[in-house]
Specification:
Layout lengths: L7 E4 L8 H12 L4 E5 L1 H10 L8 E5 L10 H7 L4 H11 L4 E4 L3 H11 L10 E5 L8 E3 L9 H19 L5 E5 L10 H10 L5 E6 L11 E3 L2 H26 L3 H9 L1 H11 L1 H4 L1 E5 L5 E4 L5 H17 L2 H8 L2 H10 L16
Parallel strand pairs: 1-2, 1-4, 2-3, 4-11, 6-9, 7-8, 7-9
Antiparallel strand pairs: 5-6, 5-10, 10-11
């Protein structure tokens, strides 16, 4: 573990297969030297650690939380009525500085509500956003929001862009992230009233703004940050996940269809495995919630041990980048950018140039 980095708190009771897979993923991370704080009913968590024969020498501690939030529970009600739930206790550890970040595969609405309640929004941030890393052909492009905010205002999209740009720079090391707003065309006249106002403001921001992009641009690797509302982002993300699953099935059926295909599959086994890893959501681990005063990573409810381990790595990377203050400073620019754009009604976002492949 890097010096100065506190342990990552992990919701032992979060997810469809908790606590078994959460404990296993935490054990795997601990074997790599990652310090872990498992949060949940202490006796049950320790029994699971013992069942999985976790070594006493591993950097794993257990913090007691008597209650858990169910996947179907109303987020607000659960956070108010179950004050000793594993999500809230884990977030309190982040707030106190005992944990560098928090990972949960539990009720995502409760995680977001709890993060706002316990940690609060960073500076001028009005709406935290969920960030997803896209399986592009190159690079690690980010898309936000992918589910936290269904209804957005221009200010929210502008803040998402500024927050995503900071995250791309500080966590992924991109020198000058290329930022675009998702729309139904690259022409400045396309999009909606929401996207046109946001794009006009971002055109004046001190970032590398590329204008509009389309759905087919998401996986090219030509962009680093794609901005949209949570409804559109979630639909786009789930569509990509479903497409990857369908293509995998089509490929398996084709490779098993006859003897020559089966022989070819044997020679292509390594390459096919590499492709599978590239599009597997478990390799990403989880989606950071940016815009709150602390590191929070929301993992998929169906996460297995590998996904939990990768989510822990993502939380650790974000904690090391220490970008919360930088995100708050960037988000504070949004209101002035919108005001400046309003004074220039003819300002339109630049049209993004087509790549040779697209042409």
């Amino acid at each position: 573990m890097a010096a100065g980095i506190a342990p990552v708190a992990v919701d032992a009771m979060g997810g469809d297969n908790a606590p078994a897979v959460v404990v296993q993923g935490s054990i795997d991370a601990a074997r790599k030297g990652r310090a872990i704080l498992l949060v949940g009913p202490e006796e049950r968590v320790r029994q699971e650690l013992q069942r999985q024969r976790a070594s006493w020498s591993l950097p794993i501690q257990v913090r007691h939380a008597a209650e858990a939030v169910g996947m179907g529970e109303h987020p607000g009600h659960a956070m108010r009525r179950k004050r000793d739930n594993s999500i809230r206790v884990g977030l309190e550890l982040v707030k106190s500085g005992e944990a560098s970040g928090f990972v949960s595969a539990g009720n995502s609405g409760a995680v977001m509500a709890g993060a706002i309640l316990v940690l609060g929004c960073a500076g001028a941030v009005q709406r935290p956003a969920i960030v997803s890393v896209l399986p592009a052909v190159k690079g690690s492009p980010l898309m936000l929001d992918v589910g936290a905010n269904v209804d957005c205002r221009p200010l929210h999209l502008v803040q998402f862009a500024l927050m995503g740009e900071v995250y791309s720079r500080r966590v992924f090391g991109v020198g000058r992230p290329r930022v675009a707003v998702l729309a139904n065309g690259t022409e400045p006249t396309k999009g909606t009233h929401l996207t046109r106002i946001a794009a006009a403001a971002l055109a004046q921001a001190p970032i590398r703004f590329q204008g509009y992009c389309e759905g087919r641009d998401l996986l090219t690797g030509e962009l680093d940050v794609v901005v949209t509302d949570g409804f559109t982002g979630n639909v786009a993300l789930k569509t990509m996940e479903g497409t990857a699953t369908a293509l995998g099935k089509y490929m398996r059926e084709a490779l098993r269809s006859n003897v020559p295909s089966k022989i070819g599959a044997m020679f292509a086994k390594t390459a096919l495995r590499a492709v599978k890893i590239r599009v597997d959501w478990r390799e990403v681990g989880g989606a950071p919630l940016v815009g709150v005063n602390g590191v929070v990573v929301i993992a998929h409810g169906a996460s297995d041990a590998r996904a939990i381990g990768n989510a822990i790595e993502r939380a650790r990377d974000a904690a090391r980048a220490d970008c919360t203050g930088h995100i708050a400073a960037a988000a504070a620019l949004a209101a002035d950018l919108l005001e400046a754009a309003d004074r220039e009604p003819k300002a339109t976002p630049p049209r993004r140039r087509r790549t040779p492949l697209e042409a």
